[in-house]
Amino acid sequence: MEKAFNLVQVRDNFKTNNASYFLKIEANYWGESTRALEGEDPVPWAWITELFVEKYFPDCVHNQMEIEFLELKQGDKSVAENEAKFTELARFVPEYVRSESQKARMFQQGLKPEIRRGVLALQLKPYPFIVQAALVIEIDQKLAAREKADKKRKIDDVEETSGQGGSNKKSHKTVGRNKNKELRG
Questions:
Q1: Would you list the DSSP string of 13-81?
Q2: Total domains in the fold of the chain
Q3: Does residue 101 share a domain with residue 144?
Q4: Is-contact 17 34, C-beta < 8 A?
Q5: What separation in angstroms does the CA of 5 have from each of 41, 45, 56?
Q6: What are phi and psi of 24, to 5 degrees?
Q7: Are residues 152 and 76 in the same domain?
Q8: pLDDT single digits (tens) 23-62
Q9: Which end of the chain is more exposed for a tag (fewer CB within 10 A), N or C?
Q10: Residue 182: predicted pLDDT
Q11: Cα-based angle 137, 142, 143 (whole degrees, multiple of 5)
């Protein structure tokens, strides 16, 4: 909301009244009751925002977001999905991403080891370059895995058609045993 007020250059003494228009039902009721406590005097915007944060974003929620941010790992997510979650959580813990280098370092720590190694080897500094490099490495790894699977599938197909597959070996052994029985019998 603060961004919207800055965009249209709303003065502080009008922010409190305009904010109630944008708030959802429960938050709107809260805002109206808070303003009612102050009576006719305009409620200072800084005070309203402080109370709003205390009510809707208490310390326990902030602490949980901080823990989630610090423990964020890529896991099964794509680099793009991990970056989106990183950006979402970083808003709540600006103390960990004050500079581009801090932000880059925190993001790198959560990448899969094989992607992190590739990014670290490039020694990139700005956060956007690190994200881009991680995306490229991830795409390359997926292509390499697909090529490896295709190559294995082709080798398996060749073995089956050339008679070296497991079922053909078994039939040769069975025929050999039957011949031995006939010779003995």
A1: HHHHHHHHHHS-HHHHHHHHHHHHHHTTSPPPHHHHHHHHHHHHS-HHHHHHHHHHHHT---TTS-HHH
A2: 2
A3: yes
A4: no
A5: 21, 11, 20
A6: -70, 175
A7: yes
A8: 555 555 555 666 666 665 666 667 667 776 777 677 888 8
A9: C
A10: 55
A11: 95
8: amino acid identity, one letter: V
**Do 115 and 43 belong together in one domain?**
no
The residue whose two tokens read 């795409």 is 139
Which tokens belong to 94? Answer: 């600006």
Q: Which residue range(s) make up the domain with 135?
A: 71-157
What does the pLDDT read at residue 54?
74
Which amino acid appears at position 112 of this protein? K
Inside any domain, residue 79: yes
Q: Which regions in the chain score pLDDT beneath 50? A: 168-172
Amino acid identity of residue 56, one-letter, is: Y
Residue in 113, 64, 61, 111 with CA at minimum distance from that of residue 83: 111
| Domain assignment of residue 62, yes or no | no
Query: What's residue 163's pLDDT?
Result: 65
| Type of residue numbered 169 | K
Quote the pLDDT of residue 62.
85
pLDDT on residue 33: 65
Tokens of 183: 């010779």
* Separation of alpha carbons 108 and 102, rounded Å: 10
48 and 76 part of one domain = no
What pLDDT is stored for residue 95 in this prediction? Answer: 93
